[in-house]
Design a protein that fits this description.
By secondary structure, the protein is α/β, with parallel strands linked by helices. It contains six helices and ten strands. Bound molecules: guanosine-5',3'-tetraphosphate and sodium ion (NA) (2 copies). One sodium ion binds next to loops.
Length: 188
């Protein structure tokens, strides 16, 4: 999506070798009209997939997921992050964050994901793919059909998307970064 690439080049800030800061429109301050256009574009790519539910994980995936759900006219569910709990009315998975170097439990209450759903997973970033793998695991537990994932920014050099695509998963990204360093971002 050209508008996103332009925006990343103007407003994005590369921190070290791995982190792209987009706090001015996506991760801290939000540009609602732009987020809506991104949600519409992700929804468009899955128009014919029969999506009945959008799934993301708190916190920063929620805003784009909401724009996608609004466009498709379906509910949006976000997995909650919490310390290990013993509830049994939830699907549960564990994700390891390379950025934060810690594991966290994610849970979705069973009644919000059903075996007759067709699910579209949405997230803001795809890096190593750990968050995505956790969400896929939860979809599998529910027995729902997984249509694929829509991502705002794929950091291709961290190879999460490559692994998941190799397993047959459909992943659509609005912008894919091949390589980056401070002052220089190269799109795929
Ligand atoms: P992975 O899920 O793809 O394996 O990535 P990783 O563990 O590295 O990411 C952990 C968190 O950092 C995720 O948010 C992810 O969205 C975010 N993240 C990953 N790479 C970048 C980046 O280059 N820039 C920014 N701004 N964020 C990045 P989270 O832990 O789920 O936290 P939340 O902020 O959504 O609450
Ligand atoms: Na984040
Ligand atoms: Na995220």
């Amino acid at each position: 999506m050209q508008e996103l690439k332009d925006r990343i080049l103007v407003d994005g800030e590369v921190i070290g070798s791995n982190i792209l800061k987009v706090d001015s429109f996506l991760n801290h301050q939000l540009d609602p009209a732009f987020i809506m256009r991104m949600g519409e574009e992700l929804a468009r790519r899955f128009t014919d997939a029969g999506i009945t539910r959008v799934l993301t994980v708190e916190a920063s995936g929620i805003v784009v997921a909401s724009a996608v759900g609004l466009t498709l006219g379906v509910p949006v569910v976000f997995a909650k992050k919490k310390k290990a709990s013993t509830q049994n009315d939830v699907y549960r998975s564990q994700i390891y964050s390379f950025t934060r170097q810690e594991s966290v439990d994610i849970t979705v209450t069973k009644r919000y994901l059903r075996s007759d759903d067709t699910v579209l997973i949405i997230d803001d970033f795809l890096a190593h793919g750990e968050a995505l793998k956790g969400l896929v695991d939860i979809v599998k537990q529910s027995g729902a059909r997984l249509a694929g994932a829509g991502i705002v920014i794929e950091k291709r050099f961290q190879r999460g998307a490559e692994r998941l695509r190799a397993e047959g998963m459909r992943i659509e990204a609005l912008a894919a970064i091949e390589a980056m360093e401070p002052g220089n971002i190269r799109f795929a």
